[in-house]
């Protein structure tokens, strides 16, 4: 079968591995949908589910700051540039990053476990005494899951650098499978505690599949603390600014959780469900395609080929922008039907359906904007620059907070997704300007260490 020329040209421009990652991400979201359906039919938009969602927020935030900041932005370009010059130094650098990520997150988890009871005031001050007690128990279990994820994400970035996307993409699917099994097998007897156990099992499955895949590539996993090398110093230099920007999404939804916890019961869960649906096209298109393009862009940036880098970025932005805009429109059109079919029934009543669907329609506006943020940010990271995306992220957060505060009284919970779209739009504009500047100076950037 011969494809129409426009479609054939579009497929030719896709980053290597993009379709595989997109398919695997879709599989993960089908499992995530099963997870949400089990949640909705078992717990509804309930107090216990509110507590579970709130308990996830701060451990994820700390994981973002301490580990993901450097991994997602700095590891691939620094590793590939180092390996290009010296394979042995590249292997030592990779092992050092894995070791330090594990140690730093381990310390962070211990601190979080100790201060768990007081964190509820920051995350969900509207919780009552019973909710606070349950929150503390779930929070400590989420901390252990975060430690496992720190190791898994470090291994995952090595797989990305090697363009081994199968195990990388399967891991989130297995994570959601663990949660579903916990809810189905343990939920009836243990309630929401069973879901927390399933979350930890899912985290170990996430790590396990990546460790197995890493045995087929070089460098082999191991322990190293070569923290005084030029490469690791550059990694830290790039990680520090990124540490400011990486937790922006977690801070954003911490803010949303704080706002929603003071509204009607179930508001936290309604925002969470709507965001989960909105994130499907963003992950399938924006994140999957951007991750696949990242090692290619990093190699081109290291060579200093400005024209080729600009061409690849232009193709990626065009593809992701068009596909995600179409996906956002489709999501808005089917929002109520999708929520009714996929979540409706059981404890999830008509009021829950209407609230969640209304939020999803507004969240759909941000689908193409957030998708473009991912590809533009990774394009800037490929040039070994992390400070400029920080400015974009912080500016976006300011716009989000101001918008919620301005429209909360008038629009209620709808102010949350509206503010999110406004923040994404600001980030896109700033990232475009930053990328244009970096491309102009790419040859000089490639020549520096």
Q: Can you walk through the features of this model?
A:
There is one protein chain. By secondary structure, the chain is mainly α. Helix content is 85%, strand content 0%. It has helices at 5-12, 18-43, 47-85, 87-123, 129-161, 165-190, 192-214, 230-245, 248-261, 267-303, 306-333, 335-342, 350-363, 366-382, 387-411, 415-440, 442-446.
Shape by Cα distribution: globular
Radius of gyration: 21 Å
Mean pLDDT: 87
Specify the helix fraction band.
over 70%
Total discrete domains: 1
N-to-C SSE string, H for helix and E for strand: HHHHHHHHHHHHHHHHH
Strand % is under 5%
Q: What topology does this entry show?
A:
Elements: H1 5-12, H2 18-43, H3 47-85, H4 87-123, H5 129-161, H6 165-190, H7 192-214, H8 230-245, H9 248-261, H10 267-303, H11 306-333, H12 335-342, H13 350-363, H14 366-382, H15 387-411, H16 415-440, H17 442-446
